[in-house]
Amino acid sequence: MFEDSNRPLExxxxxxxxxxxxxxxxxxxxxxxxxxxxxxDQKYCSNRDVLPYAGKGGFDPExxxxxxxxxxxxxxxxKRPRLEDEEYPY
Length: 90
Known about the structure:
two-stranded antiparallel sheet, 3 helices, 2 strands
């Protein structure tokens, strides 16, 4: 009967699906960074060069993380050979 495809959404209609929005690239990089700290529901950078400027309460990943020179991914440590495996001539 009537075509409603050109009609804008009504004000009470949900425009986006419910749930958590996808994080920005800066937020994703911050979560992967080794300096990421999460204490008492406060997320901040614990690097000694960033913390005095950004603080714990006012840290914004959008301002710090895209071009952060201190960024390093967390890596699992490599397994080192056990000392018993090597023979030491005493």
